[in-house]
Amino acid sequence: MLKLHVVQAEYGDCFILESKLGKESTTVLIDGGPYQTFEKHLKPTLQKLPLSRKLDLVVLSHIDNDHIIGLLDLLDEIKTQRERQVKELVKIGKLWHNSFNDLLQINLEPKKIFKNIFRTQNFIFKEEERKKENILTSIIMKGFQQGRDLTQLAKSLKISVNPGFNKLIVVNETVKSIRLKNITFHILGPTKKNLDKLREEWNDWLSRKKLTLNSEFELFQILDKSIPNLASIMFLAEIKNSKILFTGDGLAEDTIRVLLNNAMLDKEGKLHVDILKVPHHGSDRNASLEFFNTVYADYYVISANGRDDNPSLATLRWIIESGQSKNPKKIVLTNRTPNIINVLKEYDQKKFNYQCIILEKRKDYFTINLG
Fold first, then answer.
1. Prior bond of 328 cis (ω within 30°)
2. Per DSSP, which regions of the chain are E strands?
3. What's the whole-model pTM score?
4. Domain limits at 338?
5. What are the tens digits of pLDDT across the range 84-104?
6. What is the domain count for the chain?
7. Number of neighbours of residue 354 by Cβ within 10 angstroms
């Protein structure tokens, strides 16, 4: 038995992978979604599913509030239950998570780092002061401080963080394979090359002493684009003959490069997976027609609600137009958005051999059953 439960996470990600072979079962939670995901959808899902009240592994793909907040809420709930000596919602075996501090090799708390950076600036007008506070709040809200908080909370609950790794989950262009009971995880990223690039961008920005409008933009590029794109934990989960590719908010070209360099593509230069978690909520900045022609799937999963134009019209078109599968492609979507409505008008499902499956309103999750 192999199931992927796609939990409603609005503009974020939240998935539960459930595998059972004989008497051995494994359950993995990948990301926790943004604010309210835990209370509204993840907690009810964990209560409904027969998961033996255990998560063998929790994975945070990267530090951003649309992935991390639900995990913080989950661990906080467990901590409260433990303090009250009541039955815990679930027991967690281990956590995979690359914190902001470890990614950039710094010791100070993120919120202190940013406060110190802005404190050194001289603001003449009140308007500039307010702008500074707004920027600071936006940065902290992106999840960087929460990443450190998650690490501390996990340690307080005696949850092992990144066991078997040297602090960071990272690969040196060579895929690292780890067996967890009946699931083999082939870790594709982040790569050392991308983390080195990220640190170079950060140190270059930090070395500048004067904060200008342009440097503010550069900071947001690093925090909002570079960290999700370059530092996402990406992996191929293999269970018997089934494969599921989790891409986080990573870049399609990075995924293709690692698959190619590790001889994971077939003789035609393709990889078939049963389920593909489409990168970055279906953003066309992180995917391409080449990617969907290289990696093709039976199920394409997109968790998005229209925020930031996700899933983009281009990404939906690329999935439909990419040629591989003889069977109808199944596109699993957590919400009906304007772009989905438009693509359904533009591409007849029978003519173009695909099927859109949209999570029903008021439902907490949709289950893909691979048997």
1. no
2. 2-7, 15-21, 24-30, 54-59, 91-96, 160-161, 176-180, 183-189, 234-239, 242-246, 271-277, 295-302, 329-333, 354-358, 365-369
3. 0.93
4. 2-369
5. 999 999 999 999 999 988 998
6. 1
7. 21
